[in-house]
Amino acid sequence: MKNRTDAMEWLVFAESDLQVAITAKVSKKLKYSFLMFHLQQTVEKTLKAVLVFFAIDFSKTHDLEYLFSLMKKNKIIIPVKVKEAQYLGQYAVITRSPGDEVEVSKKEFTEAVKTAKTVLKWSKTIIQKKSDKLF
User: Fold this and answer.
1) Residues 84, 80: Cα–Cα separation, whole Å
2) I need a labelling partner for 117 at 20 to 30 A (CA). Which of 3, 19, 37, 48 fits?
3) Kind and range of the H or E run holding 110
4) What are the chain's domains?
């Protein structure tokens, strides 16, 4: 039961990042590209929640590809729609420093929000219902 409790704590943090991303007011000083970092964090923390739930150790990382590979190695079924979130990994660093930023359109941001929500829904189904069959 401790794994479920610890995993749920990871989900609280993931949901916080999602809330920051979707409630922030975009402006000249706050661009979609910066909010993509929070969507990446949503996915990262969500994947870590699943790993914690299954008691799978992972190193401190922002690398979504690595987290997905640990799941695959441990035979966790990853739906295609969830795996698609891997592209958000680039936003862990690229939007965090001057000179590294990229342009992100409202449409791209909206799609990324849907992707992050899909990953979060998938993980909640696993953790709350002990099931890996959402999709």
Assistant:
1) 6
2) 3
3) helix 106-129
4) 2-129 (1.20.120.330)
